[in-house]
Each structure stands twice: as C-alpha cells, then as structure tokens.
Write a structure and sequence with these properties.
Blueprint: E1 2-3, E2 11-12, H1 16-26, E3 45-46, H2 49-54, E4 70-71, E5 74-75, H3 80-85, E6 87-88, H4 114-131, E7 133-136, E8 140-142, H5 147-150, E9 156-160, E10 163-173, H6 178-188, H7 196-205, E11 213-215, H8 224-227, H9 256-260, E12 271-273, H10 296-305, H11 324-336
Length: 350
C-alpha cells in the first residue's frame, strides 16, 4: 500500500518515512496490519513524487516542465509559496488546511481532496509501469480470490459504467511495457493528463484499445449501472440505486444484509468499488476495529475516540437491521478473530 501522508502538492520532509510508520502504529485501523502475521502480505511504502517520476524513463527529463495536476484538461497550478508552507509528515502550518491545495484526505463531500485524486490518476500508471502488477483504488473491497487476474499476461482496466471508456480504479499493466511507454509519451504531449476519459482518448486515437482490455464493470463495480438508472431487468444483487445505499441500506431492502450475509453481496464479482464516501463509517454503532484480544489496544483507543464506554456495547446502539457495510465489516472481523472461515473454508492461522 502506497501512502502519501500529506497534501498532494506538499514537499516531503526528511523524516517522512519515520513519521509515516509512527502514524500507522498510532492508528487503530492501520496498526493491525503491522502485526508480524501480515509481514510480506501487507507492505506500506511512502510515495515520493520526485523519486517516482524520475524513475520513469519516459518522464524523467521532462516532467519538471509540466503542471502535475491536470484532470481532463482542468489544470490546478501550485504556487511556489504554497509548496514552502506545507510539509509532508505534518499538518498545514501557515496555509489554511481547508484550501484545496492543502487537503490531506476527504473529510466530507464538500471538502473533497481533488488534488490527491488527480495525483493518484497518474500514480497508478507510474507504479504499474515501473514495477508491473495490479493497482486498485483504496475504496475497493475484495470479494473473492484474484489469483487468476494477478498473473494475466495482458493489460486491463474496466468499463466506465455504460460508456465505452476506461475506469482505472482497477488497472493491470506489465513492467516497462510498450503500452506504458506510449501512454507516458502521449501524456507528456497533453500536459500529463491521466484522467480515465483522457486515457480512453489516447488509445482510441492511436487505435490501440486492444492493448488495454476493457473488462465489464460488473466484475469490479456491479452497482454502477443501477445507480445510473440502467439494467433494471435482472439487476445485480443487492440492488443499489445509489452508492450511499451500501452504508445506509433503504428500509425496503433492510432485511437483506443480515439474511443473505456476505455470500449474497454481488456474488461472483471480484470486488466492490464504493466510490469515495471516505467520511462514512462502516459500522456507526461500533466505529472501531473489533478484532479481539490481539488488537485490544487499538480497539480501546478507537472506543475512547468515539466517546464510548469500554464495556460491552449496548444492543440499543445497533440499528434494527444492519446495513451492508456493517455486515461486511463484522464478517471480516469475525474471520480475523478466528470465529469463522473465509468464503473458501480457510481459517486464519495465527
């Protein structure tokens, strides 16, 4: 997992790596993944824009002459004085932290961190071209084993809903591929625009769409067509007409999450993309990682932050019918605690 711990337009300080791990250890949601059991399974790496772009042969001699924040032709210019005011590894000092240039994550729909999204549009292609492999947006939930996708020899993304465009929330490319070289050289001619719709235009204009396979959105984003009033006949289940329904299941369907469980959640899809909503808790009544005694310190920390008692949770705090997000979170937690197997019948061995 690659982490850019400060605003996207910030300059890193020399102690950024140490501060990143310090923050991970103090974060009750991230710290469980630092457990030795997950060594070499989950690895955290610090994103350094200068280092990464200098590592791309197609970019290293020219990227400094360009604006880095270009999305679909909309260019955000970062003043030099702003770069000096904010450092990665800390918070905004002189600058207003609510300024679009200084946001470090999306706290609500009205304070959306647009700069980080634009940087990530480019970062996914940089990482896949430099190292090869598969990129996924962080608002993606794994629903099944990806073994047959990890080692596929070609390159792929998936369809932008009903439109013949790419969504690169899932992107698979080979290391130093000819496709990657073409995309970077073309992006340089277009002011480093890596927006998915622009990537579509690059490949269409060059008649190279067959080199970047466009998989059906149902494999990774099964609710998308329904949220745009399409696929009303035999829709994917559960039936969401709004991405927010994952977090707030409508009353008419509120019995489904607990009755069907994880096996009834877009069965057959590889993943579910919940399209941002970073500010929504998965489990409002238990907004902490309920992972058992091994991780009790983090649980207590999150409970205190939620101003909840450290005793058993009162039943009244739960909704009458649990939402899909809550059911999936508690199912995963039960697996980590060793109370149930995964969908393949495998138990986590500590």
């Amino acid at each position: 997992m690659w982490i850019n711990p400060g605003p996207a337009a910030a300059v890193q300080n020399p102690s950024a790596v140490r501060e990143m791990y310090s923050e991970l250890k103090q974060n009750p949601w991230a710290s469980p993944f630092l457990h030795p059991r997950f060594k070499d399974v989950v690895v955290f790496k610090l994103w350094n824009t200068t280092e990464q772009l200098d590592g791309v042969n197609e970019l290293k001699d020219e990227w400094r002459k360009r604006d880095l924040f270009n999305s679909g032709g909309n260019i955000y210019t970062v003043p030099q004085e702003n770069k000096a005011e904010v450092e990665v590894g800390g918070t905004a000092t002189k600058a207003d932290s609510d300024n679009i240039l200084n946001r470090a994550g999306s706290k609500s729909s009205s304070t959306y961190d647009r700069m980080s999204v634009i940087l990530s549009d480019m970062a996914r292609f940089v990482l896949c071209h430099r190292f090869g492999g598969t990129y996924l947006d962080a608002d993606t939930l794994f629903l099944r084993d990806w073994e047959e996708l990890w080692g596929w020899k070609g390159a792929f993304a998936y369809r932008w809903s009903r439109l013949p465009r790419y969504n690169t929330a899932v992107l698979h490319m080979n290391k130093n591929s000819a496709l990657g070289t073409f995309l970077f050289r073309t992006a340089l001619k277009n002011d480093l625009d890596f927006h998915p719709e622009t990537i579509t235009r690059y490949t269409q204009d060059a008649h190279l769409e067959e080199l970047l396979l466009r998989l059906p959105d149902a494999l990774f984003d099964s609710a998308w067509l329904n949220t745009e009033n399409f696929q009303r006949d035999r829709p994917a289940q559960p039936y969401f007409t709004d991405f927010a329904h994952f977090f707030e299941t409508p009353l008419v369907n509120s019995a489904a999450p607990q009755a069907m469980g994880i096996n009834g959640f877009f069965k057959g899809a590889y993943s579910y993309h919940f399209h941002n909503f970073w500010w929504k808790p998965f489990d409002p009544a238990r907004n902490w990682p309920d992972l058992g005694d091994r991780f009790i310190a983090g649980e207590r920390q999150a409970r205190n932050a939620s101003a909840m008692p450290s005793t058993d949770i009162p039943e009244a705090t739960d909704r009458k019918d649990l939402d899909w997000a809550t059911v999936l979170k508690r199912t995963f937690e039960a697996y980590i605690r060793g109370e149930r197997p995964n969908m393949y019948g495998e138990w986590l061995q500590w």
